[in-house]
Amino acid sequence: MAEAHQAVAFQFTVTPDGIDLQLSREVLKHIYLSGVTSWKKRAIRFKNGVLTGVYPASPSSWLIVVIAIMSTMYARIDPSRGMIDRIKTSLPVRNHSNILIYYECWKQFCCLIYLMNKRLKRTYLESVRPLLDDEQYKQMETVANDFKKDPAPKFQKHLKLKSWWATNYVSDWWEEYIYLRGRDPIMVNSNFYTMDLLYVIPTHRQAARAGNVVHAMLQYRRKLERGELTPLRALGIVPMCSFQYERMFNTTRIPGIETDFVQHLKDRKHLVVYHRGRFFKVWLYYGGRHLWPSELELQFQRILDDKSEPQPGELKLPSLTAGNRVPWARARLKYFTEGINQASLEAIETAAFFLTLDDEAHGYDPENIRSLDLYAKSLLHGKCYDRWFDKSFTLIVYKNGKIGVNTEHSWADSPIIGHMWEYVLATDCFQLGYTAEGHCKGDINKSLATPTRLQWDIPKACQEIIESSYMIAKGIANDVDFHGCLFNEFGKGLIKKCRTSPDAFIQLALQLAHYRDKGEFCLTYESSMTRMFREGRTETVRSCTCESTAFVRAMEDESTTVRAIYLQTQPRAADKHQNMYRLAMTGAGIDRHLFCLYIVSKVMGIDSPFLKQVLSEPWRLSTSQTPQQQLNLIDIQKFPKYVGAGGGFGPVADDGYGVSYIIVGENLITFHISSKFSSPETDSFRFGQNIRQAMLDIRALFNLKEKM
């Protein structure tokens, strides 16, 4: 994580006996800018609300209607000729008690959050206790208490001020300092991937699959722009913030010397396609409408049939987005700000999204145990030069019809792209469909203008920078040790019968697997969403707890009875995890708060040993659950083969594991495990086997208990 820049603090004291108001001018500047950004967003939302609220009419036409209605009211004329009165008398009296019930439920939910925040407030010291011996813990306790006395109150004043002024006191700093200020490559280190359906390939025709999927994405974008997507609700009651969806399309991360920025544009009418080292611009509209799937298939087939060769420097040009950010930013300023290079780069950066027609075949093969591994690595980094890692997302379509997505992380988190992906897969398979020959349905309009090749004039000096970025990216990609593990011995259905949360069950299995793998516990990260708050993103659930470590030790101690494990350690560990997850989701986590305190300390130029230690601790086990069935468009009970394979991310620590998992239906859990070949301490395949055995051992615990 990039540190906040140092600044000279300005302090003002009213009187020695009066109120001590010590505020940093530089921090106030940051807070002011955050607030300005928030109010700009509010103004844009208000404008969009007005426009979408009168859709499909224009605001001016509705103004005419309002004037006409006001005129009839003034003249006491009934333009409906008595129809409105007849409708009112024929309609039954509406029972408004449901509205009161919903209001009371909402009040009780807010009270519940408040009580949880007050009574179940967990502390940083509690979270690190299982990882420290008595002496280390005593030292950490001293450092934490010193921080609590001073300077924590100073930092907290600024955060309170920001919370009053800005929409969200965390999210803008999180985006800037965690993502955009990072100067290391975003490929593998930041971007993540999402896979296709696990068992099904609807068509093996590459151009046809691309045609249907792109058309489905355009349908989704139209619904998004018109505000027609139903907001997701936590617990079926509380609507979650949809802010992150706004930048899904027409968005690119632009490199800078010190920091990048996210460029989001209005409706874009083209996309850029990469195939065998060439870039093509494809228009998505014809006669004021989206191209039909069959028309898109024709355009993509034209690209596949094109036999032209890449221009000098064109083949590996996307590797600029895979390497270090500063060389890419400088190259962009020097070689891509004029002429055909500027025009071609602008076409990429202003495209709706980026599409790669890959010349490889990937997907899950039951007869090849490493098939998911190769599929994941291809989606995560590819050849290091065939994805535009700066686009909000790159759609990858393989030559066998399999698909996937590589997503840039700064603009949103995985549930957002997952929402769109569920819609696309369901629309592709169950609404659009294919002919018996595997082509897109519909007529073919051969009068469409052919896709346009983007032109480049890349000098030798720039080609050397491209090659340097490629070599850096290739080194990162070659070091990724990945394993995809399909666990189908049991799933969510059986776990629930054990009266345990599926997520808590899996997290305990991960703790047990890690202990068996390395013989020790480690700081563990599980991502939790905070979208019940406006512009909320994520919070950390620290899954390694005193309760979970006690459970693992009991499982590994042969002298501990099954009854003791089941009745004492397992329920406590599972309940603890569930409580922590609820706290994180409802804004009572600790890590984002500590992060913001750290940013304030750096801006104020006040060194904090406590915060420095907290923010430097490595997450050697980083985990995340991929959400499933957000839209419920596919009945997986009726169509069990149409299940998603989830997605994953690269390793977070050099000597640690990254684990993403998706609970699919009632009888399948898919694990995506990443680590680094360069670490002698890790082995992704070995860890996958440890997870499998840990899951079975915990299940056996419940089996033995049932026989007692």
Automatic annotation (TrEMBL):
An example of a Pfam family matching this protein is: CPT_N
Quote a single Gene Ontology cellular component term: mitochondrial outer membrane
- Give start and end of each Carnitine O-palmitoyltransferase N-terminal domain: 1-47
Membrane-protein topology: Multi-pass membrane protein
Q: Which UniProt keywords apply?
A: Acyltransferase, Fatty acid metabolism, Lipid metabolism, Membrane, Mitochondrion, Mitochondrion outer membrane, Transferase, Transmembrane, Transmembrane helix, Transport
Its pathway is: Lipid metabolism; fatty acid beta-oxidation
**Per the database record, which ranges form the Choline/carnitine acyltransferase domain?**
123-693
Q: What is this protein called?
A: Carnitine O-palmitoyltransferase 1, muscle isoform
